[in-house]
Amino acid sequence: MTAPRITVNGTEAPISPATPHTTALDFLRECGLTGTKEGCAEGECGACAILVARPGTNEPTDWVAVNACLLPAAALDGQEVVTSEGLATAGASGTPGTLHPVQEEMAVRGGSQCGYCTPGFVCSMAAEYYRPDRCAHPDPAGGTDPEHGPNGFDLHALSGNLCRCTGYRPIRDAAFAVGAPADEDPLARRRAQSPPVAVATEYVRGGSAFLRRNTLGETLRLLRERPDAVVVAGSTDWGVEVNIRARRADCVIAVDRLPELRELRVGSDAIEIGAALTLTEIERRLDGRVPLLAELFPQFASRLIRNGATLGGNLGTGSPIGDSPPVLLALEASVVLADADGERQVPLAEYFTGYRQSVRRPGELIRAVRVPLPLSSVAAFHKIAKRRFDDISSVAVAFALDIEDGIVRRARIGLGGVAATPIRALTTEEALEGRPWTAETVEAAARVLRAEGTPMNDQRASAAYRSAMLGQSLVKLYAQTTEAVSS
Fold first, then answer.
1. What values do phi and psi take at 167, rounded to 5?
2. Measured between alpha carbons, how far is 410 from 399 in angstroms, rounded to an integer?
3. Which helix (H) or strand (E) holds 314?
4. Which of 136, 147, 310, 418 qualifies as a cystine partner to 453, CB 3.0-4.6 A?
5. Is pLDDT above 60 for 487?
6. How far apart are CA 460 and CA 463, in angstroms?
7. Pairwise CA distance, residues 180 & 193, whole Å
8. Mean pLDDT in residue range 31-58
């Protein structure tokens, strides 16, 4: 294995002497690229955003914006990175001192005040600027979708960039003003070429190691040797532990580029989603095929986080407030667990055993998530949080119902934030099944739903509020389905 190196703004840079836990943010700043800044150190503010070349959905390569504060620099071994400093020369005319089109629009429209977070905004905007399938989204009434510009710019691309000291309008105006990349734009041309090849990494320094193997078999054998290792994909959770809680691991094993964990298969009886596919990749590849997941994705953190976060990681942490478990419980999903001896499939309803605990054994990792087909006809995901986007749930509720001839034939309800683990609302499901989908049935079932779980009081919500929101979510679902039928 060669010494780990990252191509930054077109120039190769060795990772050494950084430690295995040094973040990409700190690495880049040590390289003198101080446009990449630290604001929150936990992936919420976006001041640290950079562009990374990744395998594409509609083109061989996509430019993806990620939080440099969360990724270990070693995780970018063999990869290509562009920072805000590199955009001007790499993505415009190539002439030093020439602003990139995104930078130009931010400048002329006053989208910056103190300027601290502006480079992060620029990188997130540039990722959307280079999105191959970006196109206009006309509104049937003649206007445009308020979250998409006339140029097709998706404002969700900026959901992880939280500075609003100028007011948001100048930033939005800049986003909605950018055109299409020029034919001679080097970063646009780069999309048509193959993405960087995934390389094996063995970076050991100061008693700590960051390891990546090329195949699942090699990784599972390594896990058998190092069952105490921390397994990471996008590092959106582990990066917070490193930064905020100063946790250090003797060994970190990366699985984000394992081809066996990056497959998405649609069969006649199930959809299998690789555990290392990012949420953005899943969203774009499924393209609404699973409506309940399609409702989840825009509410899951921010685009910057979804560009790194994975279903395997979200389930692997065992958090009771993760947003994907309630949805996957309602979908009756299973997890495929793999170790050096083989695989086993476990229903997600049997996966969690306690607070941040599961049936996953030492040496095992999540290879895939399986969603059985066919899907229920009525589905909804309700996330109750203090912010619309980029926030942690106080309560999360996912519904999957089959309603035929006005009767609830089947009900599956997943809950998050109301117990030590994500849970199924089994008593409420029983209260619905076999009964007419009427206001009376819903009101009675809502009373049952309010009593599900063991909600607690904390800084996000009181136990009473959480219980009330459970019942209200079912009432809301009924109102939504009634409106859909009447319209």
1. 85, 150
2. 11
3. helix 311-316
4. 418
5. no
6. 10
7. 19
8. 95
DSSP summary character for residue 41: S
Predicted local confidence at residue 144, as pLDDT? 57
What's the pTM? Answer: 0.95
How many Å apart are CA 187 and CA 120, to the nearest integer?
18
- Rounded Cα distance between 286 and 280, Å, is 10
d(CA 229, CA 209): 10
The answer to whether residue 165 scores a pLDDT higher than 80 is no
Contact status, residue 163 vs residue 171, Cβ threshold 8 Å: no
Contacts of residue 450, defined as CB under 8 A and 6 or more positions apart, other chains included, come to 467, 468, 470, 471
- The answer to whether the Cα torsion of 459, 462, 463, 468 is positive or negative is negative
CA-based diameter of the chain, in Å? 70
Q: What is the pLDDT, as a whole number, of residue 96?
A: 61
Integer distance in angstroms from the first to the last C-alpha of the chain?
Answer: 62
List C-alpha distances in Å: 90 to 1, 28, 103, 299.
29, 17, 13, 33
Of residues 32, 27, 30, 103, the one with CA closest to residue 68: 27
Nearest CA to 460 among 414, 406, 392, 365? 392
pLDDT tens digit sequence for 428-445? 999 999 999 999 999 999
Phi/psi of residue 110, each to 5°?
A: 70, 35
6, 117, 140, 215, 263 from 163: Cα distances, Å: 29, 6, 32, 41, 36
Return the pLDDT at 167. 74
Buried b (16+ CB within 10 A) or exposed e, 219-244: bbebbeebeebbbbbbbbbbbbbbbe
C-alpha 46/C-alpha 33 separation (Å) is: 16
HSE, CB side, 13 Å, CA atoms: give it for residue 254.
Answer: 28
**261-305 per-position pLDDT tens digit:** 999 999 999 999 999 999 999 999 999 999 999 999 999 999 999
Kindly report the length of the chain.
487
Q: Which residues pair with residue 273 across a beta bridge?
A: 264, 369
Structure tokens at 360: 């996953």
